[in-house]
Amino acid sequence: MLDESQSQAILIEPRWGARLQARFRALSLSTKLLLLTIGFVMLAEVLIFAPSVANYRHNWLLDRLTAAQIASLALEAAPDRTLPRKLRSELLNTAGVRAVALRRDDFRELVLQLEDQRSIDATYDLREATWVSLIGDGLGVFFAPDGRMIRVIGSPEIGGDLIEIVMDEAPLKAALMTYATNIFFLSLIISFITAALVYLALNALFVRPVERLTWNMVRFRENPEDRSRIISPCGRGDELGTAEHELAAMQSDLADMLQQKSRLAALGLAVSKINHDLRNILASAQLMSDRMVVSTDPIVQRFAPKLILSLDRAIQLCAETLRFGKASELPPRRKIFPLAPLIEEAADSIGLPDHPQIAWRMAVPPNLQIDADRDQLFRIFSNLLRNAAQILEKTPTDGAAPAIEVGAQRDGGVVRITVSDNGPGVPIRARPHLFEPFKGSSRDGGTGLGLAISAEIARAHGGALSLLDTETGASFRLEIPDAQTAPSGRPFAIRPPKSDGARLQ
Predict the structure, then answer these.
(1) How far are the Cα atoms of 114, 338, 366, 369, 416 from residue 497, in angstroms, in the given order?
(2) Which tens digit of pLDDT belongs to each residue from 139-181?
(3) Which helix (H) or strand (E) holds 249?
(4) Which of 161, 308, 343, 422 has most Cβ atoms within 10 angstroms of its Cβ?
(5) How many angstroms separate the CA atoms of 42 and 198, rounded?
């Protein structure tokens, strides 16, 4: 079990770490770059410091061994290999050792020694030393207790004898401390100079351009329609230059798009107002044209139906334009009803059953039921049938009599209706934007609103309106799935028809 103080320490450490991390994240990019550069350079200096200290200690001990070797040679040159005590002390003090022993042919001989000898605390054999042991022994000098007596075994650079020396570690420790202090301050100066140079270079090459990109994006976001806020690329050929070019292109496209949308919004508002008044004028003209039907003038009788039909189409176009200008279609009020009567009603509204030029065929099973909004579905069929009739009236077919056919069948919980004609088909250029307003019209003078509205209604029912790939004519498929649950909240099923609709021959 942890006591209260230990529990508090465990809780404080993560909070302190999280607070430090949060403060680091809050720093600017330039400050982070400066701190990281200094830290990495200092880390590199630390990694260099340990081998440098080890190498300095190794060379220092080799110098002591060489000095001891020279002292032993002075002894061998003396008569009877004896020296006065004073001269022996001076030789040992000059070499910086307290005792010297030579090893020849497995024979150890103590040649020089001070009288006041102390016990040896540690022994180091330079012959068996590795870089790891040298680094460990070098760093261990800083933490060793004062006054240690050490023995060092090694071969000096002159002569081939193996020498053992006993020496006080205090001079070595003092020399290492001086060397470490010099290395530390030198490393500190190098670190700051390197960090400053790296910081200035990276700040000029990367940080300042990134800050420029960031500032420009923030400024452009305040008013995207102001083209003066678009960034001006500096002409760099690297990745940042590419980012500036792409950002400038994106901002330019966005500004153009927003300006276009603003113009279209203003134009749409003006068109809606004009369209509303125009629809009222056309309605009045339609009422007056109805009186022309009772006229006995043959010229009036000849042109009155065409005039009435043109007024009906103009009024329908005004209504569709105003309807499309709303934010969205009303959600469908679905109910189950027979499909065939609805299609017949849509065909009657544009005069297809009695059309003098176009053959009308309907292959919809009488017992086929559909779950949809009846009024909205009527608009879809009215648009599709009217488009087909207008195309067939203006464009002759290849030998066959103009014909429009509607077929339908149920596939599980989906009703698929096909509206086909044997006309020239939909032009290739109109197909990519067929269901987009003001873009997908396949006939001269058309707006494309009918198909756009029809596709939107189909999507509102969870279905889709698509153009089928046929060899001749145009064939549209409307898919309307059943609702998931009945109004009471219980699942329901619609009985499938006994026969499928036939395709246009």
Answers:
(1) 122, 11, 8, 8, 12
(2) 888 888 888 888 888 887 666 678 888 888 888 889 989 988 8
(3) helix 239-290
(4) 422
(5) 14
